[in-house]
Design goal:
The protein has helices at residues 7-15, 56-72, 106-119, 152-167, 174-185, 187-190, 229-238, 244-253, 261-280, 285-297, and strands spanning 3-4, 21-26, 34-40, 45-52, 80-86, 89-95, 137-139, 142-144, 198-200, 209-211, 217-219, 225-227. The chain is α+β, with helices and mostly antiparallel strands. The chain folds into 2 domains: 3-95, 2-Layer Sandwich (Phosphorylase Kinase, domain 1); 106-297, Aminoglycoside phosphotransferase (APH), C-terminal lobe (Aminoglycoside 3'-phosphotransferase, Chain: A, domain 2). A hairpin with a 5-residue loop joins β10 and β11 (217-219). The longest helix has 20 residues, at 261-280. It is globular, with a radius of gyration of 20 Å. The mean pLDDT is 96.
Amino acid sequence: MIEYNSIEDAIKAIGGEGAEVEERHPVSGGDINRAYMLKLSDGSLIFMKANSRKNLDFFRAEVLGLAALKEAGALKTPEVKAVGTDGDSAFLLMEAVKSGARKRSFFEDFGRNLAALHMADTESFVQGGRYGFYKDNYIGAGFQKNTPKDRWIDFFRECRLEPQLERASRYFDEADRKRQLRFLDRLDRYLYEPEKPSLLHGDLWGGNYMCGSDGDAVLIDPAVYVGCNEADIAMTELFGGYDMSFYSSYWKAYKYAVPGYNDRRDLYNLYHLLNHLNLFGGSYLQSVQAIIRRYETE
């Protein structure tokens, strides 16, 4: 995608030579970027995210993630309009998703379509291995390593848990560190190698989907990579926001399910809890320690 050197140039590329921003209204909801709704001179609306210029890579990664989800074709995403810099700021311009009422089958359709995403072909998204992504990206504001690996358990250990544990090292004493080493050495006891790698949204908590004007789910704010489908499902359970019909529909449609998911769920969510520990502080420490103790002693 072309990167523009000003919002003005990007708006003209989107709406034509005479296009201008007539109104700009702040939008609440995010804690990483500033967000605005732009009304153009032709009456159309554009959603804009902004951050400091040094964080342009956040938006480059989001563009690639949305493109991957769109290529998989199973769930809707906002259309990316433009990305670039303007003075000291970086910006991302996207389709303004018009919210609608959820159709009666919203969660059933969402679950079935997520299963389709997880069963889509993944070869174009990672080179040099089965798991990972062709670019590193971000989980919230946290850096996410996506180095390709042939084995899922190696990827989850080396690209998910170990970097977060290292980042959080100031929170742990010597006993914690020894426990973590034993836990990491035993991941093969708890996890399995999937029959089918899955393209994951990567950060599928309840705030990262919307309901579009047609009543269907729209995915936003991806942290995509190719991994085990259970990692996405586990994240949906961490903070809630999903109806039980979502899960029944998902597991009915997904063809590669392996018994024992409930025993693995907390291990997958350890990654997100570690990321929250690193981003937001020590209130997540006890949850992290409890999960590691549970698995390390099993």
